[in-house]
Amino acid sequence: MKYSISNLSWGETPIDEMLPRIKQVGLHGIEIAPTAIWPDIKSSDLSDVKRMRDLIESHGLKVSGLQSLLYGHPNYQLFSRSTWSLMRSHLEFMFSLARTLGAEVVVFGSPRN
After folding, report:
1. How many CA within 13 A on the CB side of residue 98?
2. pLDDT at 28 over 90
3. Which H helix or E strand runs over 30?
4. Integer Cα distance of 14 and 32 in angstroms
5. With 90 as the cut, is the pLDDT of residue 91 above it?
6. Cα 96 to the chain's mean position, in Å?
7. How confident is the model at residue 90 (pLDDT cuts 50, 70, 90)?
8. CA-CA distances (angstroms) from residue 6 to 18, 75, 87?
9. Tell me, what's the pLDDT at 40?
10. What's the CA gap between 61 and 74, in Å, rounded?
11. Threshold 0.90, pTM exceeds
12. 76-99 b/e with 16+ CB inside 10 Å = b?
């Protein structure tokens, strides 16, 4: 079995300080909440995303998944057809981000949406 940890679990500590500790305790990956690292992810440079993947992998870890996909977008409502096209476009971007990071899992867990 492989174990991962969410980047939300260590608060404000920079990820590069946490990576050696994560590896040392025997974890295998990180589940990323993108907006916790890149607050305005859609305006971020994808080269920053690739550098993050390289940094994580350089410590023998991988991005196991993405979470909090709709954080900051309370207007996207799963059960309201009026927001589906916007939500779909946003989720497609998140899926592309997941591919760039090498993640194979995305977690919808958005109770307000």
Report:
1. 20
2. yes
3. strand 29-32
4. 13
5. yes
6. 11
7. very high
8. 11, 25, 23
9. 86
10. 32
11. no
12. bbeeeeebeeebeebeeebeebbe
